[in-house]
Amino acid sequence: MFLGSPQVEPHGKFAMAINIAHPLEFERPLVQLEKKIDELKTLSSSGAVDMTAEIGRLEKKAKKLQEEIFNDLSRWQIVQLSRHNARPYFLDYVNNVFTDFCELAGDRLFSEDPSIVGGFARLDGEPVLVMGHQKGRSTKENMLRNFGMPRPEGYRKAKRLMELADRFKRPIFTFIDTPGAYPGIGAEERGQAEAIAMNLEVMAGLHTPVISTVIGEGGSGGALAIGVGNRVLMLEFSIYSVISPEGCASILFRDATRADKAADSLKLTARDLQSMGIVDQVIGEPRGGAHRDPLTMANSVGAALRKQLGDLKKLNAAQLVSDRYKKFRAMGAFLGK
Questions:
Q1: Residue 37 pLDDT more than 50?
Q2: Where are the alpha helices (DSSP H) in the chain?
Q3: Among 164, 176, 155, 172, which Cα is nearest to 112's?
Q4: How many angstroms from the chain centroid is the CA of residue 310?
Q5: Is the confidence at residue 2, as pLDDT, over 60?
C-alpha cells in the first residue's frame, strides 16, 4: 500500500467507512442527522427498545435533505467538495480500477518527486501507463506529497514515462488533482515553466491514446501539464481552472474572502466546462460526493475509461495526433474582422 492512500482491504478495494470527522459546513446538517440515525440503530440492535419506525422516518428525512443540498450546490460549494479531505485520490483509483501497478520513479535528471506518481499497470489485462497527482491525508503525508503540487522533476518524470509508453504503444491514463505547480524558488530555479511547456509539446505529439481525468482540483498549468489528452473527463464535483478562486479574488477584488464570487466568474465546474466544449464527459458522482461511496465512484470511472479507450482504439497513430490537435485548437473564441 502506498503512503497517501486510504486504508484498503487486502483485496485492494476501498474500506467502505465514510469519513465524517471534518464535514463541510453545508454537509453538517446531513452528517448530524446520519449520526443520530446510527445512534438509534445501535440502541435498537441492543434490544432495549424498538426504534424501527423512528429510524425509517429519519432515513427518509436524510434522503430528502441530501437531495435538497446536492441538487442545488453553488460553484463555491463544488470547489469545497473537490478539495474534500476524504475524497478518493489517484492511488485509490489505481488500486480499484487497474491491476498489476508497477511504480516507476525519478526523472533521471535531478530527483524523485512524490507529488506525481506513475507507472505501468493493466486495464482488463491490457498493459497501460497510469499517472497522476497524489495528495496526502495527514500532515506527514501532505509534506511528502507536497500537497499534490509538483516540482519540475515531477513533470520531467511524467514526460519520461509518457515517452516510454509511446515507444511501446501503451495507452496513457492521467489523473489530475492539484492546486497547481509548486511556486517555490527552487522550483523556479530548476525550470518549472520549461518543464510544463515541454510536457505540453510532448503530449501533443504522442502516437498513443491519451485520456485525462480531473478527479479533484485542476489547477492551472500544473494540471494542464498532464492534461493534453484526446479525451478530457471530469468528475461531477471536480473543478478545472487557470487560477484558484482565492487567487482570482485577490487579484480582481483585492479580497480573497470573495472567492465565492470569483468561482462564479471563473465557471470552473464540470458542467460549465462541458457546455463550453472543453470537457468531453462528466462522470456522475454518488449523491453526496465521491467520498461517500468511493467504490461506486471507482466503478464509474473505470467504465468511462473503458468506453473512451474503446473509441480511441479505432484511430491510428496519425489520427490520434490530429484528433488531439484539433480538440485543443477548437477551444476558446477568436474575435476579429
A1: yes
A2: 28-45, 52-70, 75-82, 90-97, 139-145, 152-167, 185-189, 192-204, 220-224, 245-252, 259-266, 270-275, 294-312, 317-329
A3: 155
A4: 22
A5: no
